Amino acid sequence: MALYTFGGTPADVLTDAVGNVVPDGAVVVRRAGTGEPVTALYEVDGVTPIGTLRSDPAGSAAPGAVRLFKARDVSEIEYEYHGPSGGTPVRRYQQARETASAALSTARSALAGPDTRLPLTGGTVTGPTAFAAGAPVTFTGPVSAPGLTDLPGARVFLVTGAVGDGVADDRAAIQAALDAAHTAGGGQVLVPAGRIYGVTDFLTVYEKTTIWAYGATIRAIGNTGILRNFLADDSFAGYEGRGSIQVLGGLWDGNAAHAGVGTVTAMTNVISWMHAADITVRDATVRNTSSAHGIELNSIDGGRVLNCRIEGFKDNSAAGNRGFSEAIQIDLARAGSGSIGLNDNTPARNILIQGCYVGPSSRLGLFGRAFGSHTLVAGTYYDGIQAVDNKIDGTMHEGIYAFGWCRSVISGNIIDNPGHAGIEIAVPDPALGYTLTPYAIAVTGNIVDAPGSESAIRAVGHPTAKLSGVRVDSNTIRSSGGNGLQIEHCVSSGVTSNTVESTASTGIFVNYSDGASVDGNTIRNAGSNAINASGSVSVAITANHIDGTAGNHGIAIGPGADGTNGQDAVITGNKIRRAASAGIRLSANATGCLVTGNQIRRDGGTTANGISLAAGATGAVVMDNDLSGNGWNAATALLVSTAAPITGMGETTALPGTNVVDTDLTPGTALEAAMRPAGRYETTSRLRCGTSSAPTSGTLNLVPIWLPQGLLISNIAFTSGGTAASLPLNCWFTLHDASRVALARTADQTTAAWAAHTTKTLAVAQTSAGTAGSCTTTYAGLHYLGVMITATAPPALVGEGSTLLGATAPGLGATNTLQTTPPNVTGGAFTAAAFTGNAILAYAYVT
User: Fold this and answer.
1) Where are the strands (E) in 591-699, listed by range?
2) Which residues belong to any copy of the Right handed beta helix domain (predicted)?
3) What letter does residue 554 receive in the DSSP assignment?
4) How far is CA 621 from CA 201, 514, 566, 595, 658, in A?
5) Ranges 203-217, 640-654, 709-723, 743-757: which has the least confidence
């Protein structure tokens, strides 16, 4: 097992975000690339184990320095540590010292062979060559030999001669090291930590170069940016420019001018890359950008920005119109977008932005966008873009603007307080003269908190430039100033398993997007419709959980703003509660929709209807929905206007069909429900009342009635038939629960007349709660209405007749006898006696 050596260089110093050293800081060592913790650490002797690696303490000769140490079987690592104030951990990449030694060993082995020795004065070595000990040896040209491998890190060039006070111009000193690496064919440029290096113009880094800048600050003190991979007169095609470059660490201060601080007023990128492949910026902080971008990835194939912080932006443009500028821009080579040629429209592709932070700096504000693009040309896409696991702390416009991105992933980002959308996928307007149709874009596992007036996440195409295959999955949206999620002019998109809470407008808005699937989402407290599909064909809205809308409906299907019909929607398996108007609404011309297996509850809200259909909502099938527990009759639960949907087998359109509503008691309830006066709950339908029966004088008779939970009851009514009461002495009505416990009663009418063919309606006078005037039911199900009349001859009561079978549980009919005084029902004090068996099937109702 091999041991590899790390630490002990001038760059191995822990620093915080402003360059201060971090003494006695705990250091976690991870395997580069995988992040796996490395625990087999040893002192430089290779024997003594290290429990916790820490930087040198404050009283040492080099506070904050990381001493030499060894790690087993790991040749590339990342340091990880926290600054004094905690927060996001800092990571730094490093290769083992043995990497360079391996290159030297390879070279020596190659040069020691009989056929690979160097010539003395040029040409080919054909015999042994030796140099005297200590003698100088100079090579004026390239050296090569079979087996000589140019390993990364074989050449190291230290920046020397710099003042490092942040005032002096140190550009020449740093550029000299970069030029030396270029002359050598590549290498590593080491910028010593703990200093502030001022530069008055761009530094140019060449191909196959790694810049180590951990703990160093490089600050623009002129009126340009800091670093780029080209000269002003360079010109490259495609990705053929200076690539294979790494920038590791460093605070790159763009020094934008504002409020008397900073020198840069020009529109300039702090770090700019063009026409190249294999570019990495890792562990860097890019700060205080003037008008343009912190990092520009223009015409780059394989660009990576990893674990970086991009902080602070100032729009110094004369017009003040750079409020859209991205912290990291993904761009293409065209006139007006790049600094050099060729303007061949080469786009950036295969870009990874991971683990980065974007937000304000200590003296400057927010970027327009964190990551994105705003320039395109015909026939060109930004392909293979990944924005993964980043933190965005506010933007003036969108958090991430995926303009023309294709086959891309936006995942695991936390986006707080974007001025517009948190994430937007967009394409150019075809009116510009060309049409792009990006596809296969996944937006997954992001958190967007408190976005501005636009939808938190939106994918928006155009009528003739639609997006396809957009997947918006497992995102969390909170406190949106507009919609939660918006899919517009998309084809075959999926909006699944998202959580949307508290939106000013619609929770999920599907607009002109045929074949969309809206499945398994949770929407709470939407300002308008929880889910609205407008102008869309064949949308499937399934298994969503909706809880509360301040306006409109739980789910709405309707036309688009241009009149395009919504049609053939499938709405199934959704749970909807506390919608403001209807649980499900099929608006004008919402044709051919299937609404089945949904559960809709009012639950203390204002929901007026379970499912409502506009007159033009034709061809609907509305079956097997649970609309119970809301105090609705069939006509209220299913408000169908003039377009009767199919509600049951055999293409029946009778209400409620196979849908369950509170008054669905027997197979014939559709017509009976249609005949029931609004707001009335009856013991039986008036259509069934073909006779009348007289109760026994002085006996309390209970008639069964089904009542919903939460129903407010103020009055109880019975109707007399052709025989009036003769010499009445007492008369009162009662309400009982299924166990015959009295819940409410009316006052005794004593000798008041009760004429023939008259409905006597009595107000509630006492309840089990001790209040007068009304009673509210506490459950849905069986209750009883009681009638007690003492008279020489009681009146005949309209109903379905009488029966002798009332004693069988749950029972009905005659109970207490010889009644002359209304019972006290306060606190459930009165329970009617057991049923005797004699029963009248009287018609009665409550209101």
Assistant:
1) 594-596, 599-601, 609-613, 621-623, 638-639, 681-682, 691-693
2) 469-625
3) S
4) 71, 20, 15, 6, 11
5) 640-654
Q: Quickly state the pLDDT bin for 802 (edges 50, 70, 90).
A: confident
Residue 833 scores a pLDDT above 90: yes
Q: What tokens were used for 364?
A: 């400057």
Q: Which H or E run includes 175?
A: helix 171-183
Q: Map tokens 């910028």 to a residue.
A: 191
Question: Which is nearest to 410 in space by CA: 422, 395, 420?
Answer: 422
- How many other CB atoms are there within 10 angstroms of residue 691's CB atom? 14
The DSSP secondary structure of 246-259, one letter per residue, reads: EEES-EEE--B-BT
> Which region holds residue 716: left if phi is over 0, alpha if psi is between -120 and 50, else beta?
beta
Nearest 10 degrees: Cα torsion 768, 772, 778, 779: 90
Given a cut of 70, whether residue 214 has pLDDT beyond it is: yes
Over 50: is that where the pLDDT of 432 sits? yes
- Tell whether omega for the bond before 430 is within 30 degrees of 0, i.e. cis: no
Amino acid letter, 349: R
* Count of beta carbons in the 10 Å neighbourhood of residue 821: 8
Instruction: Give the per-residue SS3 of 3-51.
Output: EEEECCCCCCECECCCCCECCCCEEEEEECCCCCECCCEECCCCCCECC
Instruction: Dump strand ranges (E) for 315-434.
Output: 326-331, 351-354, 357-359, 369-372, 382-383, 385-388, 391-395, 400-403, 405-406, 408-411, 414-418, 423-426
Run of H or E including 91: strand 86-95
**Distant-in-sequence, close-in-space partners of 828: CB < 8 Å, separation ≥ 6:** 741, 742, 768
Pick from 474, 590, 574, 471: which is nearest to 530 by CA?
574
For the domain made up of 682-846, the CATH class stated in words is mainly beta
Report the distance separating Cα 206 and Cα 203, nearest Å: 10
- Overall average pLDDT of the 355-366 stretch: 97
Note whether 476 and 507 are within 8 A (CB): no
End-to-end Cα separation, the chain, in angstroms: 88
Q: Comparing C-alpha atoms, which of 551, 555, 650 is closest to residue 597?
A: 555
C-alpha span between 544 and 533 (Å, rounded): 14
Q: 611, 639 in Cβ contact below 8 A? A: yes
Q: Average of pLDDT values for 642-656?
A: 82
For 196, 423, 639, 696, the CA distances from 839, given in Å and listed in that order, are 100, 69, 37, 10
- Higher pLDDT residue, 646 or 523? 523
**386: buried, middle or exposed (CB in 10 Å: 19+, 13-18, 0-12)?**
middle
pLDDT value of position 87: 65
DSSP for 264-277 reads: B-S-B-SEEEEEEE
Q: Is the pLDDT of residue 369 over 70?
A: yes
Which residues, in sequence order, are bridge partners of residue 728?
791
CA distance 754 to 790: 12
Residue 108: band (very low, low, confident or very high) from pLDDT cuts 50, 70, 90? low
- One DSSP character per residue, 679-718 reads T-EESS-GGG--EEEPPPTT-EEEEEEEE-TT-EE-EEEE
User: Between β-strands 76-83 and 26-31, what pairing exists: parallel, antiparallel or unpaired?
Assistant: antiparallel
Domain layout of the chain by residue ranges:
3-95, 156-537, 538-676, 682-846
Q: How far is CA 107 from CA 98, 102, 103, 127, 680, in A?
A: 14, 9, 6, 17, 99
* Model confidence pLDDT, tens digit, residues 43-101: 989 899 999 999 999 988 889 899 999 999 998 898 888 766 666 677 788 888 887 66
Place of tokens 């184990």: 49
Are 583 and 575 contacting, i.e. CB atoms less than 8 angstroms apart? no
CATH 2.160.20.10 fits 156-537, yes or no: yes
